């Protein structure tokens, strides 16, 4: 029978060293706060006139006027004004991520409001930085002024920033401080359908807000089922729908791609040679990793041949692969094609490196962006007309019998919703094509949507963040989330936090170590190892 792995308990010497280290550091912030948290809480002077003037001098008024979100601004703003919570279902291409925060600030400024401050929560740092840059450009101001962003390790904002794009995780860490929402008029949660654990904790926090004034809450998505969210927030929640503005996207499957490449078809023995569905991708055990590498070796020549064919057309090519390893390998292969400018795009890149994906290619060359699922939603490669989708994504999951110890990186099929989002990247500026590298018969086997992270993610870190945010017993807190995990997994998370010294065994209160771990943007076990190393003088 399989036994549950447990953390090694701290020795008395290690516990004493960590406690002493935390006491010595009590006069300073632990860990050192990122730049986005070094600024004092915004209490800026009235900015209504400045906001109105800046927003009136947009460089792209004509493009903006064509966006459905702008065309439906009256309905959007009326719904937001009349309800505590607005669920905005905006179809792909409607402009919700760029326009709704700006529309809110414009409306408040037009009424003579002394100050407006909209915090927009994005699931990924790429979305936060790219959207802030785009909206700032539309207003004719540099990013970091009227429109700014804050992500882990980097921030561009001032006390007068009216629209601030942030990652959801960073907002959660801010909320651990009293008064973190002081002066915030609206909280916008974008891509709420992705249902990350951080997003669910944020929704729980927003639902539990008490006292006045409360910020208005706007939840946005292209694909979310609005009914459960409306029920979750109760009576004063409303739904507003905004149509999309996309061009037709022709969806082609693996057999179509092979038939479109006669030379490649002959090389592999005819169209039937690749007609069989691929085996299911699974966790990266050594054997499965070898199998995945073999599958990639087969797929890379097909992608290269397809890129060579498509590079003769106008427009950029966006390729979705599951991870950084695949990006590096495919970029190296594609750089041999002289017509192509190959650009990687993933979350580990700096903001400056990510910005390359949004620039036009030199004349006579085709931009090829090789990306993970960071390019799936919220951001637009403006000149993209062809998408090549490998149909895979990577995630971290935990076993049902363990809250933390059995973390696995899993490569699995994308959901049907994710595949639809990816295809939509090709139809933002004109008609395009999505090449899905799986057989048409496999499409119906895809899950409709990816499960909420609460159902799959190891719960140790989630439980610690919930405890730090709300206090009280962990299990009832997690049970109050929109997608609550099973009670036995919540209980297992508490036991492991007690074992690592983050929670008191009797009262379940945060220990000094637990408070320090909650402030670290990493897994609690990894954070504990870092703190133990620092306390014992390792690596200093």
TrEMBL record:
Record domain Helicase C-terminal: where: 302-470
Keyword Nucleotide-binding: yes
Keyword line: ATP-binding, Hydrolase, Nucleotide-binding
Region of interest: Disordered: 21-52
Biased composition (Pro residues): 30-47
Record carries keyword Membrane: no
Domain Helicase ATP-binding: 77-242
GO molecular function, a single term: ATP binding
CDD domains the UniProt entry points to: DEXHc_RHA-like, SF2_C_RHA
Protein's name in the database: RNA helicase
Taxonomic source organism: Pelagomonas calceolata
